[in-house]
């Protein structure tokens, strides 16, 4: 095996491990079984079991001896604590979420971009008693799906957007409203308004609005969003909600840039 083949094989293993860890992270805190991980990652079960055992040996994965389910391991917690110094904006974002939830009565969220996905990091529920549970901590969506993913995708460079749409088939899982042309139309509308609207495209009756938060390099790295039932996102109210989102996103972007 030459050096190129070795490099390719190594990259393949890393990709498999990353897919396993990502799936397990979405199944916390109850964990998940080997067969379910194999189905979710489209990997052979023996391969999944072998990699899980190796990850467990190094502390990246843990196993509940009663249920047999796999969970994220203590080594990831340690690494996460170290990485938090650079990537954790929860201290800044908590204020924004609390103020958004109080001002609107809706559930407010912070999501982060991770590659081609967004992952929900924080949630703050508002006073309105009827809530949407489409989004919750740990929930992942592809870019272009849900208001946070639309908001982040919309403010990437045009060539990055086109490369992403060329390699991703959102319509296959999320329906024809997520065809490339429909996504492009939502991107145009998001750039015009400054905020994204998800008009019940994932779950009937569940609406969302989101706006991007930028890192010090000017890249959309996070999103603030609101979700709720349809009648709470009327055409008359959406501009008010969008204005609040934009104000808090701008303030949060500034705090991140200033480190305070």
Automatic annotation (TrEMBL):
Q: Which UniProt keywords apply?
A: DNA-binding, Transcription, Transcription regulation
Q: Which Gene3D superfamilies match?
A: 3.30.450.40, Winged helix-like DNA-binding domain superfamily/Winged helix DNA-binding domain
Source species, domain of life: Bacteria
Q: Where is the IclR-ED domain?
A: 75-258
The segment(s) forming the HTH iclR-type domain are: 11-74
Q: Which Pfam families does this chain map to?
A: HTH_IclR, IclR_C
Question: PANTHER family, from UniProt?
Answer: HELIX-TURN-HELIX TRANSCRIPTIONAL REGULATOR, ICLR FAMILY, TRANSCRIPTIONAL REGULATORY PROTEIN
**Which protein is depicted?**
IclR family transcriptional regulator
- Organism, scientific name: Gulosibacter molinativorax
Q: What is the lineage of its organism?
A: Bacteria, Bacillati, Actinomycetota, Actinomycetes, Micrococcales
């Amino acid at each position: 095996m030459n050096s190129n083949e070795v490099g390719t094989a190594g990259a393949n293993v890393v990709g498999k491990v990353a897919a396993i860890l990502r799936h397990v992270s979405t199944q916390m805190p109850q964990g998940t079984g080997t067969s379910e991980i194999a189905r979710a990652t489209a990997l052979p079960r023996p391969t999944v079991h072998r990699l899980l055992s190796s990850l467990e040996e190094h502390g990246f994965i843990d196993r509940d001896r009663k249920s047999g389910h796999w969970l994220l391991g203590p080594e990831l917690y340690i690494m996460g604590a170290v990485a938090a110094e650079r990537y954790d904006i929860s201290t800044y974002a908590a204020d924004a979420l609390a103020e958004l939830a109080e001002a609107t009565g809706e559930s407010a969220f912070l999501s982060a971009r991770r590659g081609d996905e967004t992952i929900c990091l924080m949630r703050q529920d508002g006073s309105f008693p009827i809530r949407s549970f489409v989004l919750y901590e740990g929930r992942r969506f592809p870019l272009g799906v849900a208001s946070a993913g639309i908001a982040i995708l919309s403010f990437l460079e045009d060539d990055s957007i086109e490369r992403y749409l060329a390699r991703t088939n959102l319509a296959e899982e999320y329906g024809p409203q997520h065809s490339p042309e429909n996504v492009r139309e939502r991107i145009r509308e998001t750039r015009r308004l400054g905020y994204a609207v998800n008009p019940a495209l994932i779950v009937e009756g569940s609406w969302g609005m989101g706006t991007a938060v930028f890192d010090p390099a000017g890249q959309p790295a996070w999103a603030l969003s609101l979700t709720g039932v349809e009648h709470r996102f009327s055409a008359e109210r959406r501009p008010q909600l969008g204005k609040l989102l934009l104000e808090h996103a701008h303030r949060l972007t500034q705090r991140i840039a200033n480190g305070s």
